Amino acid sequence: MTEFWEEAFKEKQEMWGPEPSKSTLLIKDLFVNNGVKQVLIPGIGYGRNAKIFLNHGMSVTGIEISETAINIAKKHFGNYLSIYHGSVTEMPFDDKKYDGIYCYALIHLLDQEERKGLIQACYNQLEGGGWMAFTTITKQATTYGRGRQISEDRFEMFGGVKMFFYDEGTIQEEFGDAGLFEVSKVEENYPFYLIKCRKSV
What we know:
- The chain is about 30% helix and about 30% strand.
- It is of the alpha/beta class.
- A seven-stranded mixed β-sheet has the order 3-2-1-4-5-10-9, sandwiched between helices. A three-stranded antiparallel β-sheet has the order 6-7-8, with no helix packed on it.
- Strand 1, helix 3 (about 50-55) and strand 2 (about 60-65) form a beta-alpha-beta unit.
- The N and C termini lie far apart (about 35 Å).
């Protein structure tokens, strides 16, 4: 998967533009309203979703598999961002606890064990009382059911991308023990679920 994303970034560079996603604006409000100070972003990409947290006085640490994306982020943010180079499946990269964790459009690219591992790894790095949010593609996406089926609700398409499509049942199943308290729908380039969790104090 590393090589696929390296090629994607090299070819398209800042493929999603400079502005944060709609989901990120909603999570920024959640974090600001609850006094979040230190944010971890697994799958930070080139940093477009980090800027708004930085602008509101939060420190941001990222994890990113693509060196190309990391170099673009460094060009834009310099030392304002700290990014670990590696896969989210290898978390943790430090022993810090964060009061906010935000994972945008990443978890559906993982298989079942990797998804379970990512949720647990994020929950483990969350401070008591901290907040974490994930966005993920839904079964309402026009791409659902296309390509080669790998397993239930998981398909390979776009020349090798493997995607799992969530519904509310699988969200409850995978996030239910991780402080899940709200699921909402957000229209981005695909229909997404915005999944919010909080760790008990």
